[in-house]
Amino acid sequence: TATMEESFPRGGTRKTHKSEKALQKSVEQDNLFDLSTEEESTKRKKSQKGPAKTKKLKTEKRESSKSIREKFEILNILNIESLCEGMRILGCVKEVNELELVISLPNGLRGFVQVTEICDAYTKKLNEQVAQEEPVKDLVGLPELFSPGMLVRCVVSSVGITERGKKSVKLSLNPRNVNEVLSAEALKPGMLLTGTVSSLEDHGYVVDIGVSGARAFLPLQKAQEYIRQKNKGAKLKVGQYLHCIIEEVKGNGGVVGLSIGHSEVSAAIATEEQNWTLNNLLPGLVVKAQVQKVTPVGLTLNFLSFFTGLVDFMHLDPKKAGTYFSNQAVRACVLCVHPRTRAVRLSLRPVFLQPGRSLPRSCQHLGAVLDDVPVQSFISKAGATFRLKDGALAYARL
């Protein structure tokens, strides 16, 4: 079993520590990371007796609390307990049904997107069809808009409990929810956003990017390549999900010109000049990063100059696992950002480093019952890894 002595710092601006001894100590506690509690205030009450001792004890308590939270972040790799309302996370379409999408989330998690959580224009047409009790022109079903393997940016709408007592994760793809962290003034050329088609106009498509005060337009000539290669020559439909590059911004973000060309989208890199922050950082963005620290269960990365992120062992490049070193330059994809702790998780797997690309269905073992598979490691409160006979690494969560 792999040792879990090392720890990651939380996502956020880089901080230096006087000592890392606190991070190396083993901690045994049931509730290591209470996401509902805020960090203790630095404001201290004065004490008439032993003020110096009280100050020292409170400082040690704060440092110990911080150490525990950081240790929890990595020892308990992303699990359903980590998810919370408002969390933005990268997902992959697993199943497409008439009334919902089943979405695979990182580390074996799963969520559901209801048909009314695609975009406002699509929901409006659905309501029109219900009211008229007959088919509405230009309204197509989810199977015509989505296909298994598509990567999508999601926001967690709720984490509830099913009748069987299991947790159920509801997600939204609606750009109004996913991109509400962006303002029109924050939009910059070169940014990679996701949006959905709202309507077809004479010279192009109005695209819903969910940013208040911004009207996004996709000219016909910028959509032709996509229509030929990925849409079988058919016009884009209302509700169709797109990865878009901002080509131009006018009127302080009031009017935004888009492109969905494969070469521009797949090569998109988030840069410092685009002024991303931990408040508006979105899943699916590809960044240039530098390895800060190598641990037994993954890496910490520095990216966009000031931010720190976590890469767990399942999201290392399989061909490079075991060869990473401090200060190594890498490219990484943002998987999720926790809305309260600002912890950022990333992936170094090559399939995530080309935006707009669908994931291949490469697993040959789906549905197979495997006997005598050796356990490689066990991660407390998360799951276990196994090494299959063909050398592939498998993971089963608790």
TrEMBL record:
Its main location: nucleus. Residues 1-62 are annotated as: Disordered. One of its GO terms (molecular function) is RNA binding. It comes from the Eukaryota. Residues 43-59 have a biased composition (Basic residues). GO terms for biological process: rRNA processing. Residues 86-174, 190-261, 284-349 form the S1 motif domain. One of its GO terms (cellular component) is small-subunit processome. It is found in: Nucleus. Transmembrane segments: none annotated. Keywords: Nucleus, Repeat. This is Programmed cell death 11. It comes from Mustela putorius furo (European domestic ferret).
